[in-house]
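Regression test case RT-17, inverse folding.

Input:
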């Protein structure tokens, strides 16, 4: 779930077959909603498929957090949960099983997406369900390439908001030779290239596929395969999105971080964040990354993992630190500043950092789930 700058949130060593099977078995046994989407090869996608968000047993899961400022914060999850903070936490429940992402342009223009094509819009006074035109599970929503609002999800679903509604975007992208000739085509919906994360410059997903806006005006299509430095093509699981090119980061299920760079020729590339130009980071916590948020003023990236950790990394990769460690499963992180940061997780977990301390907050519990929630510490977890 996730996941932008302080004011504009949201805008893959391929897993071995044995690992994939173990993951699926674990997820089935736990009946939990996993943040694992799909993982496999690079240029030639395999037929190995994972279920991105298995429908879990009834439980209180917070999957995404975003806001416009300290007095305007939203968190969404399961079952159909929308929390809002405006000085106090209030709960709205909508008739959808799982909401996976929340993002907006202002306090009166907020979007949430989720399973079965669910898209909800908040106009400042009420939430209303919009017709997405699809029943595919959606995993992220936000401002994407071309400056347009997108929602993305399973099997190459890319929706674009136009004229107050949603339309299915083109589902193919081209890769070019050095002389600008198309040499390969990716068909998202045919290849099963599920899309998972949105930034204003690219959309990431399975096989570490990154789709960039196409600047070859002589060709009639919207998308271009992006240059992405990851020879093992792990699934993209988190992103920090910003209109400022240098403030865009992506992360994957192997715990690798990537930053968006532009070379002297104007070519945009996603490069692996390294310490001292050699060692990939975060080396001290090689876990799948579920959420990213950049504290621009401090030059520090906050990340969450499904092992109940919150960590920081300087944007140059030079220093790393674990700042919170529990036994829970964290899903996302967002802040309005370095002294106002929120982290979401399973079992209705919501932590807040005030610049000095991390505090677990008490928030409303939706109807239809066990009021005696499992503790965050010691909760069961599985690897993506």
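Golden output:
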């Amino acid at each position: 779930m996730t996941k932008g700058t302080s004011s504009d949130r949201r805008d893959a060593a391929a897993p071995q077959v044995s690992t994939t099977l173990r993951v699926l078995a674990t997820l089935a046994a736990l009946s939990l909603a996993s943040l694992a989407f799909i993982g496999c090869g690079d240029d030639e996608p395999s037929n190995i498929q994972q279920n991105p968000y298995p429908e879990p047993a009834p439980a209180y899961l917070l999957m995404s957090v975003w806001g416009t400022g300290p007095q305007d914060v939203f968190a969404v999850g399961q079952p159909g949960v929308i929390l809002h903070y405006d000085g106090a936490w209030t709960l709205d429940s909508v008739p959808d099983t799982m909401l996976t992402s929340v993002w907006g342009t202002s306090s009166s223009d907020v979007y949430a997406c989720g399973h079965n094509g669910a898209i909800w819009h908040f106009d400042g006074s009420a939430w209303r369900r919009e017709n997405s035109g699809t029943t595919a599970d959606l995993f992220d929503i936000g401002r994407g390439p071309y400056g347009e609002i997108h929602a993305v999800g399973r099997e190459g679903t890319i929706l674009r908001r136009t004229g107050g509604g949603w339309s299915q975007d083109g589902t193919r992208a081209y890769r070019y030779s050095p002389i600008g000739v198309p040499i390969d085509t990716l068909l998202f919906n045919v290849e099963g290239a599920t899309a998972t994360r949105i930034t204003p410059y690219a959309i990431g997903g399975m096989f570490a596929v990154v789709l960039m806006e196409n600047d070859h005006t002589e060709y009639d299509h919207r998308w271009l395969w992006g240059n992405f430095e990851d020879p093992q093509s792990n699934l993209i699981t988190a992103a920090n999105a910003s209109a400022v090119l240098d403030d865009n980061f992506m992360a994957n299920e192997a715990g690798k971080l990537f930053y968006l760079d532009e070379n002297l020729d104007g070519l945009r590339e996603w490069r692996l964040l390294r310490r001292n130009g050699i060692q990939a980071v975060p080396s001290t916590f090689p876990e799948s990354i579920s959420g990213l948020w950049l504290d621009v003023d401090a030059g520090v990236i906050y990340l969450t993992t499904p092992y109940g950790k919150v960590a920081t990394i300087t944007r140059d990769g030079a220093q790393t630190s674990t700042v919170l460690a529990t036994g829970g499963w964290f899903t996302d992180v967002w802040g309005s500043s370095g002294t106002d940061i929120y982290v979401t997780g399973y079992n209705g977990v919501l932590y807040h950092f005030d610049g000095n301390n991390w505090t677990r907050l008490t928030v409303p519990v939706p109807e239809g789930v066990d009021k005696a929630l499992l503790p965050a510490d010691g909760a069961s977890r599985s690897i993506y």
